[in-house]
Amino acid sequence: MTKPLRPALLGGILLAVLGSLCPFLWFVLTSFKSQIQVEAIPPTWWPDGSLGFYTSALIEHRLLHYIRNSVIVAGATTVIALVVATPAAYALARLRMAGKAWILGGLLCVAMFPHIVIAGPVWQILERLGGLNTHWGLVLPYVSLTLPLAVWILTTFFQELPFELEEAARIDGCTAWQALYRILLPLAAPGLFTTAILTLVFAWNEFFFALLILTDPGRQTLPVGIALFQGEFIMPWGEIAAASVIATLPLIVIVLLFQRGIISGLSAGAVKG
Amino acid sequence: MAGLVLRHIEKTFGRTRVLHDVSLEAGDGEFVVLLGPSGCGKSTLLRIIAGLEPQTRGSVNIGGRCVDALPPSDRDIAMVFQHYALYPHLTVRENLAFGLKMRGKPKPIIEERIVETAALLEIHDLLDRKPKELSGGQQQRVAMGRAIVRKPQLFLFDEPLSNLDARLRASMRVELKKLHRRLGTSMVYVTHDQAEAMTLGDTIAVMNHGRIQQIGRPDQIYHEPGNPFVAGFIGNPPMNLFEGSYRLHQRDLELRAGDLTLRVPFQAHDLVGADSGTATLGIRPEDVIFAPPGSGHVAVIGTIDLIESLGGDAVVYLSVKGQPLVARTSPALRQHAGDSVTAYMKNFHLFINENRVPLPSS
């Protein structure tokens, strides 16, 4: 049974939601304005519905091109991170081995490293490997950066699934791998979704490494592309706003689509983990 | 042909030895119950039979074939788990079909087996439901169905009824017994519940601390327990056990446990060993009566501490010279708590050096 919320609580919730949505809403509004409206003082609140910034962003600033790069990098990062993290998490959750807690703790520590600390070494390694200005050169650090969290989340999920299920599957004729993908993976689907979304969002929005590794405009991803919209003398706020809206839309759509799975995923990990 | 033969099974986890030299046989179609308190190694033994856990030493034979090197799937066994372990994302039908599908059985045969099993267990109207839409009892049936549908050579049950309420457990027990009679397949059943063991088993293997204490028919285990552990573990309320020092006389044996002295008829030549030492004397609660009987009983005077009425009969807790004594008797007892009463005892069990020593039946 749902009880009506107390007014104070409701007000608080609305304030928090509005507060976090505000910058984004302002960008959405700005993206539909004309150049005159953007520069008007005092600012105009309501846009005139012009699509000029969108065409400018998509055509003059070659936004589709950046989107393509982002899809490749974020997509590859997500797939590789999941493919590597799943068996690792399964092993950590299931196998009797020494130092399991240390491995999990170590993973968490690695995830805490400030990116700036590892930027130099990563750059040098990629330079030696010939990975600068390539997509794989960016995917590689992205996978290493997202793996700890992915392994951690998936381990929690696998640990919650009863061991008996796997044993039943083994008696029913499954190998360890078959038990994993026929029985455990379907059951860990919320965990997989959660991990996939978190990885995707990270890789899609990541700016620092992308800026460091990709100097060739032909390879750059969305965040870098958008940041480099600015010319020498003007700040093209309108185009940046339009591009940001376009960049954010795919994430919003994906999150909304998988919302139920993600929510059950996050709470399961939080409550029982 | 033997359904299952275990030879000298040993199991150690790290430095802890959980099974010591366990040997056991189950004939073709025999229902063997592994009974013991939690932590006695019975579930580990079952998992070794299933191949889910490798034994440290010893061998497992199923259907005349050594299966030590075979994975669980190739041992021709089916197992029913304590928590059922039904696949939550599959319907009942898919759960039943899973094992057959993994073995590459053709679809018409799978469908035929499912229909057959569903009819046997009366679960046909549940086939299209998911496990979470079923009650505990229904899940239990489906778990049995998943085992039966495969027609294995050996069934393994790991405390399958322990999650059901008392009434359902009793009715499932009866059904399981019928099922066994109908299928005629060997079964190994793990439980800590002696009532389950006594009603289900053709043979009971009582285990404790990783060792088999006694193997025998239920009535044998009950009437001739091989050692004090088995004597105390089987029976409800448990057998009264008096531990103390004994001394042999010409025609009887005298045991002193604290201030209590008991003299039971005994033929000295039955005893291989010393004329005195420590011993345990046991007496079942139902062999303690209060009405003056004929001859051959040992009488003691005690005080009633508590009377538990169970409807059909009553359990009387007494103190006899500082030693507790429990009696199971008719509820028509006229005495009350605090009263002094004479208890008459017969059919003692004697254990010396942890082994049963037969007493002349009186």
Number of strands of chain B: 21
CATH architecture level-2 label of the largest domain in chain A: Orthogonal Bundle
**What is the ordering of alpha helices and beta strands of chain A?**
HHHHHHHHHHHHHH
| Whole-number mean pLDDT of chain A | 86
Distance from N terminus to C terminus of chain A (CA atoms, Å) equals: 27 Å
Description:
- The complex is a heterodimer of chains A (about 270) and B (about 350).
- By secondary structure, chain A is mainly alpha-helical.
- Chain A has two domains: about 15-50, no CATH class; about 65-270, MetI-like fold (Orthogonal Bundle).
- Chain A is about 75% helix and about 0% strand.
- Chain A contains 14 helices and no strands.
- Chain A has helices at about 5-30, 35-40, 50-60, 65-95, 100-110, 115-130, 135-160, 165-170, 175-185, 190-205, 210-215, 220-225, 235-255, 260-270.
- The longest helix of chain A is centred in the N-terminal third of the chain and has 32 residues, at about 65-95.
- Residues about 270-273 of chain A have low confidence and may be disordered.
- Chain B is α+β, with helices and mostly antiparallel strands and about 350 residues long.
- Chain B has two domains: about 1-230, Rossmann fold (3-Layer(aba) Sandwich); about 240-355, OB fold (Dihydrolipoamide Acetyltransferase, E2P) (Beta Barrel).
- In chain B, about 25% of the residues lie in helices and about 35% in strands.
- Chain B has eight helices and 21 strands.
- Chain B has helices spanning about 40-50, 90-100, 105-120, 135-150, 165-185, 195-200, 220-225, 230-235, and strands spanning about 1-15, 15-25, 30-35, 55-60, 65, 75-80, 155-160, 185-190, 205-210, 210-215, 240-250, 250-255, 260-265, 275-285, 290, 300-310, 315-320, 325-330, 340-345, 350, 355.
- In chain B, the strands form four sheets. Chain B has a six-stranded mixed beta sheet, sandwiched between helices.
- In chain B, a hairpin with a 2-residue loop joins strand 1 (about 1-15) and strand 2 (about 15-25).
- In chain B, helix 2 packs parallel to helix 4 (about 135-150) and helix 3 packs across helix 4 (about 135-150).
- Chain B is elongated and about 75 Å long.
- Classes of the chains: A mainly alpha (about 270), B alpha+beta (about 350).
- Chains A and B meet through helix 8 and helix 9 of A and strand 6 and helix 2 of B.
